[in-house]
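Before relying on records like the one below, remember that each one covers exactly one chain. Contacts with other chains, cofactors or solvent are not represented anywhere in the record.
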Amino acid sequence: MSIIIAQDLSKVYPVAVKEPGIKGTITHFFRRTYRDIKAVQDVSFEITPGEVVGFLGPNGAGKTTTLKMLTGLIHPSSGQVRVAGHVPFSRQEPFLQKITLVMGQKQQLLWDLPALDSLKINAAVYNIPDQEFHQRVGELTEMLSLSGKLTQPVRKLSLGERMKAELLAALLHRPQVLFLDEPTLGLDVNAQVAVRDFLREYNQRYQATVLLTSHYMADITALCERVLLIYQGKLIYDGSLNGLLKRFAPHREIHLELAQPLSKEQLMSYGDVKRVDGRAVSFMVSREDLTRTVSRILADLEVIDLTVTETPVEEVIGQVFQSNDQRSIGIK
């Protein structure tokens, strides 16, 4: 059974419209008019227990609004949503025990106190017994490589250490569902890798369900087999990451260094020749023909070096969002 169910989920914000000038200000004060901003429109999807799903979209697409509806922070204008068997906006204690929300640009740890003091507050909020509290803190400290850091004031920790401590605090009550909004925002490469490794291990160890938004495509490719794409408030793709790549990046590029230079005409039978620069050659070849084409090249030509590259995932996602024909990208 699905642990997250969203059916025709929508959120509309009324925004006051004010005309410029003094007349507009006076009219706005006594008689306001409004227009509707559709932040999320009829979004439907389901996520099964233990899945790690990437939630992608440009700024203002509706990702954070959707997460806030799923966690019960805001009420949907229409549609239905259930998370771990609960209606999120009811904010009942059993529901809050099962979820957590981590936002990379927000913090819950008290700045001037050691992180351990904030963790003790969380333990009291979630009614975690002392023995279990120490066991969980020890386990998560080891997984996050935070040994010796929790007794220091939060302000003295590096950004990466603070983010790890935030994750520890968010996972102390061992939630079933993790909503992660840009958890690696602003971190350096090493800290990003550490956070990804931890999330992968946590998911495997506890079979936690994860819905992850990130502008770092490395987060998505490292953790998520399935992705949801949202654009202008509408869900335009729900499927595997590999399926998205096959659909919108159906070709791979072969780069060759030949022993002897050949003309473009001599090379055209091997694929779509993109570049010939002396002994350096680049082809575009469909994924289905890649193995056969590489075998032919190695058999027919004197090759010094051969590499095969894919279109970067971020470029593929960009192409999807830039498309004006939404029907061509699977909008439901």
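The domain at 251-309 is CATH 3.30.70 (Alpha-Beta Plaits).
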